[in-house]
Write a structure and sequence with these properties.
CATH class: Mainly Alpha
Distance between the termini: 6 Å
CATH topology: Proton glutamate symport protein
Strand content: under 5%
Radius of gyration: 21 Å
Largest sheet: none
Structural class: mainly alpha
Order of helices and strands: HHHHHHHHHHHHHHHHHHHH
Length: 416
């Protein structure tokens, strides 16, 4: 655990240093804030791109090997069914908590924000107009595996990998064994790379945080104090619910799991990217004792279907915008919105700022001015920190829970 603790401490130090450096630039050298932010943000960009570089081959190789080794199609169906039941239940609970707390706390009635024009949200408004069932299907089913690899479309890679893995499992050991062996070696080599890349995480965290603080300063927290307070309170409630369910399934081993994933949680929080910790999360869950076949099958699915933090934010932000504009929504309308979000949010995780795109589309559907998204854009980075960290927690719990239900969770975890 020594290496893991060193990384965790290094990230904490980088986080605090980033806030301090960004604060100094914003207050002492405001004229240099924009170029400084643009340049130091490159540290975060380099880290995230290093991780993105290995996500597609890692998902493909681990998933194909995991399914090919399962060989039992019934087991694949059983594990997949349990995973989807968890994903759907967790998504509904997340959406409901967001809906319930935004109605109770009413941040939109307390926060005094000027109604802005849609210029800041122009790209998001364009993205949402193209959202349709046809786009959803195109986004889900790959036209080309190489295109899916090139664009890091995790869901498309998952679908191809499942089909390829099932085909290998039914091909017979004589033909499949060398292919499975090759992919297994590649997967382990990529996981070895994860260890090297993660030591760049502190620099990535420093760059990401310093850039945001240098541009926005600390005054932004005063303007959005109520919104941030209420959103993070809602996230805390969601964490309590997730951890209670996790404790019911895992017992005292939940605390061991949290110790294992503390570095991925912190990286996701600092970089606002749950994708950036995918390889590290695979590694830590296997060390925790989860079966590698279950991890390689469920975790990529979770990254498309089980984004608990993002789900909660969708209802919270949508109703917040309605409250700002003084639009009263009936209970029936809000429940309909919840169900619409439940369906439209699945499988679009690869879309940049997917949560905001879905919020804009949903607002348009329910007569809420979609340009209201411009009201929350200035603070979205900080909300995204909480969302990303919650997404990582939800997927770690889902994978561990299904491993336990399948009797595939080792009681003695692997040593680091």
């Amino acid at each position: 655990m020594k290496g893991q603790n060193k990384l965790f401490i290094a990230i904490i130090v980088a986080l605090l240093l980033g806030v301090a450096i960004g604060g100094v630039v914003h207050t002492q050298y405001p004229e240099s804030a924009e170029p400084f932010s643009k340049n130091i943000k490159l540290l975060g960009t380099v880290f995230i791109r290093l991780v993105q570089m290995i996500i597609a081959p890692l998902v493909f190789t681990t998933l194909v090997v995991g399914i090919a080794k399962m060989s039992d199609i019934k087991m694949i169906g059983r594990v997949g069914t349990k995973a989807m039941l968890w994903f759907i239940s967790a998504s509904l609970v997340s959406l409901f908590i967001g809906l319930m707390l935004v109605n109770w706390l009413e941040p939109g009635h307390v926060t005094k924000l000027p109604i802005q024009d849609a210029a800041a949200a122009e790209d998001l408004l364009k993205s949402s107009k193209s959202f349709s069932l046809e786009d959803f299907v195109k986004h889900m089913i790959p036209k080309s595996l190489f295109e899916a690899f090139a664009t890091n479309e995790v869901l498309q890679i998952v679908i191809f990998s499942i089909m390829f893995g099932v085909a290998l499992a039914n091909l017979g050991e004589e033909y499949s064994k060398p292919v499975v062996k090759l992919f297994d070696i590649i997967a382990h080599a990529i996981l070895k790379m994860v260890g090297y890349i993660m030591w760049f995480a502190p620099l990535g965290v420093l760059g990401s945080i310093a850039a945001v603080v240098a541009m926005n300063g600390f005054k932004i927290f005063e303007v959005y104090a109520v919104y941030l307070r209420d959103f993070f309170f809602a996230l805390a409630v969601l964490w309590v619910v997730l951890l209670l369910v996790g404790y019911m399934v895992l017992g005292n081993r939940l605390f061991e799991l949290l110790r294992r994933i503390k570095a991925p949680l912190l990286i996701a929080f600092s970089t606002t990217s749950s994708e950036a910790v995918f390889p590290k999360l695979v590694e830590e869950l296997e060390k925790f004792g989860c079966n590698n076949r279950v991890v390689s099958f469920i975790l990529p699915l979770g990254y498309s279907f089980n984004l608990d933090g993002s789900m909660m934010y969708m209802t919270f932000a949508s109703i917040f915008i309605a409250q700002i504009y003084g639009i009263e929504m009936s209970l029936g309308q809000q429940i309909t919105m919840l169900l619409v979000l439940m369906l439209t949010s699945k499988g679009i995780a690869g879309v940049p700022r997917a949560s905001l795109v879905i919020i804009v589309a949903t607002c348009s559907m329910f007569g809420i001015p979609p340009e209201g998204i411009a009201l929350i854009l200035p603070i979205d980075h900080f909300c995204d920190m909480g969302r990303s960290m919650t997404n990582v927690l939800g997927n770690a719990l889902a994978t561990s829970a299904v491993s336990k239900w399948e009797g595939q969770l080792e009681n003695t975890p692997q040593k680091v």
